[in-house]
Amino acid sequence: MIPIRDNIPARTKPVVNYTLIGLCTVVFLLQLGDEIGEPSLVERYGMIPARITDPDKPVEIPERVARRTSRGIELTESIRPAAPSAVPPLLTMLTCIFLHGGWMHFLGNVWFLHIFGDNVEDRMGHVGYLVFYLASGAAASFAHLLSAPGSTIPTIGASGAIAGVMGAYLLLYPRARVLTLIPIFIILHMVVIPAPVFLGIWFLIQLFQGTMQVAATEAAGVAWWAHIGGFAVGAAVAWILQRTHHINPPVERRLPSTEPLAHYRIRRHHPRW
User: CB–CB of 45/31 below 8 Å?
Assistant: First the structure.
């Protein structure tokens, strides 16, 4: 399911959300400029769980190298030492959320952040939203650390922090609607889905995949528990902020384009409005 837009307008310009998208873009462009043979940004700033749980133990990264032989292309496995971390290992729990593993990973994350982040920033305020986003990212990294403490695979991506934004959106806008693109084979369907249904299905997929990953013998390449942890923390923080009234009031939903403006002007003064 690909969200196209929601029906909740932002009260203020989401400058923090735009800044976060810009930072992810700049870092991703720097990643594309990594030279072959040089220590990559992923290894220097990505979170390697084994490096945090046992800082004194050297980290070795398994990798597969394609070699051309007389019989064709063969994959050989080797182990090499990881590049040293550019920051203290604990700090990589934050720096990793600005790195991405490819174009689809990057574009998918920033698009979801664009759809849901502006409305959450609207409710939390600019500074509060920034703190919330970074805390969600750190909580997501911690959840992945607990699920795979000995992993030597660098963990990267804004998915965990964005999952926190989506968890908060679920609590803050339970009546929102999301225009969604659903590709079924070669046919594209456009449907309007209630936000709780869209986000609920997304979370259940993460939970199912995370549970399957625990039972698997090899890592699946996706930090499912980072998504689960970020989503749960985001929803919990939004619930606490609502209960303690430390949050901005919700904005009125956008009126359907089919409703005449004159009709709205009459109804808005009705006592029930």
Answer: no
List pLDDT tens digits, range 122-176.
Answer: 999 999 999 999 999 999 999 999 988 988 889 999 999 999 999 999 999 999 9
Tracing tokens 């959450």 back to the chain, one arrives at: 120
Please indicate, yes or no, if residue 65 is contained in any of the structural domains. Answer: no
Say what the pTM is: 0.84
Q: Could you list the residue range(s) of the whole structural domain that residue 161 is in?
A: 2-55+87-267
Residue 75 falls inside a structural domain: no
Query: Could you tell me whether strands 60-69 and 72-81 are parallel, antiparallel, or unpaired per DSSP bridges?
Result: antiparallel
CB atoms within 10 A of CB 18: 15
226: amino acid identity, one letter: A
Q: The domain that contains 162 carries what CATH number?
A: 1.20.1540.10
Beta carbons within 8 Å of 7's beta carbon, 6+ residues apart: 176, 177, 178, 179, 253, 254
> How many distinct structural domains can be found in the chain?
1
Helices (DSSP H) in 216-248: which residue ranges? 224-243
Structure tokens belonging to residue 4: 């196209």
Between 19 and 212, the more confident residue is 19
Q: Rounded to whole angstroms, how far apart are CA atoms 178 and 3?
A: 6
Asked whether residue 38 is assigned to any structural domain, the reply reads yes
pLDDT digits (tens, 9 = 90+) for 187-207: 888 999 999 999 999 999 888
What pLDDT shows up at residue 127? 96
Neighbours of 177 (CB within 10 A): 19
**Does residue 77 belong to any structural domain of this protein?**
no
Could you tell me if 130 and 166 are in contact, meaning their C-beta atoms sit under 8 angstroms apart? no
